[in-house]
Specification:
By secondary structure, the chain is mainly α. The protein contains 4 helices and 2 strands, in the order H-H-E-E-H-H. The chain has helices at residues 4-11, 15-23, 40-50, 57-61; strands at 30-32, 35-37. The chain has a two-stranded antiparallel sheet.
């Protein structure tokens, strides 16, 4: 589980953006008392979905 600050650092975004996504329910979260945590699996999924595959070397030479 990641804090809002840790989530922002991993994704390279501002904490305000993460808090906004949490408020809009665009990012799943878990509440532990007053603390908000984002599951690491969710963050990893976001990174995987946003990844752009590299071009094969042959395509670069053309």
């Amino acid at each position: 589980m990641l804090t809002v600050a840790e989530t922002a650092a991993v994704l390279g975004l501002a904490e305000k953006t993460i808090r906004n996504w949490l408020y809009l329910r665009r990012l799943p979260s878990v509440r532990v008392g007053r603390a908000v945590r984002v599951p690491f699996v969710v963050v990893a999924q976001l990174l995987d979905e946003g990844a752009v595959p590299a071009l094969p070397e042959r395509a670069l030479a053309q």
